[in-house]
Please model this.
Amino acid sequence: MTRIIYVNGKYKSYFDALIHSEDRGFQFSDAVYEVYEVKNGQLVNARLHMARLSRSLGELKIKPPMPENALYCVISETVRRNRVQNGSVYLQVSRGVGPRNFLFSAVKTQPTLVCYARNLDLVQQKKVFERGIKVITHKETRWARCDIKTVMLLPAVLAKEKARAEGADEIWFTDRDDIVLEGGSSNAWIVKNGNQLQTHPVNSAILCGVTRLTLIDILRKYSMKLIERAFSVSEALQAEEAFITSATSVIMPVVSINGQRIGGEGAGPVTKMLREVFYSVAEMDLL
Ligand code: PDD
Model:
């Protein structure tokens, strides 16, 4: 459990880590976030997460709360104070506090920065990898700028809850032509013809996942073919393997879509291989 949370310059105990009621993150979801993986005391893909955070802030015209190297120090100290060796860091920046007004240009605000870190149950993660996850598809209900990592997550919250109620672990958002866009909190992949990997191209319909970028580097390194082209649900059902990627799940095999089995039992050989080499290709920074 998270014990210490960084809020605007102070490290607070869990129950004292409070945000103002007129924070625009709370009122308008006027905030962005990042989730970083911590592996063996190292921060995974920090540079790529920082670049995406900076892009998200820029797209929404939110002032960066501090320079990148200072953010890194906050993350490092938060991880240290929570004694996290393997887990995740959550970092959120909102536009700040001000009298409720749709126009952000009409209120003077200072960004609110929150950071916490928590440990992950590696045994449980391994178990999930071995059994694989079940996915159900869900028509897209989000806004048209899914490339920005905002905290406006209610469509994913509701869809994931529906998945849970139906005995599944993740949802894949689909467009009106049954094209798979991405997961509720992950990117979606399929494997075809032995070593061809297909995933949705980067545009405003999906988040450019940092784990996705590492996977592309792995494919390059191992001379595997990347197909950045959208696939339909029926194409996915015919694939040899399917999996999701995210900072918290890394790579997780998908064993069924809408109750229909896909591939063989558990993780397929390509999914296993990608998982095994992942940290030898990802950028790792000491905390
Ligand atoms: N989610 N797509 C969506 C909609 C996501 O929310 C995420 C990550 C990803 C994968 O991105 P990355 O590989 O950079 O983690 C794709 C995080 C983990 C979350 O919201 O908890």
Notes: Residues 46-60 form the longest helix (15 residues).
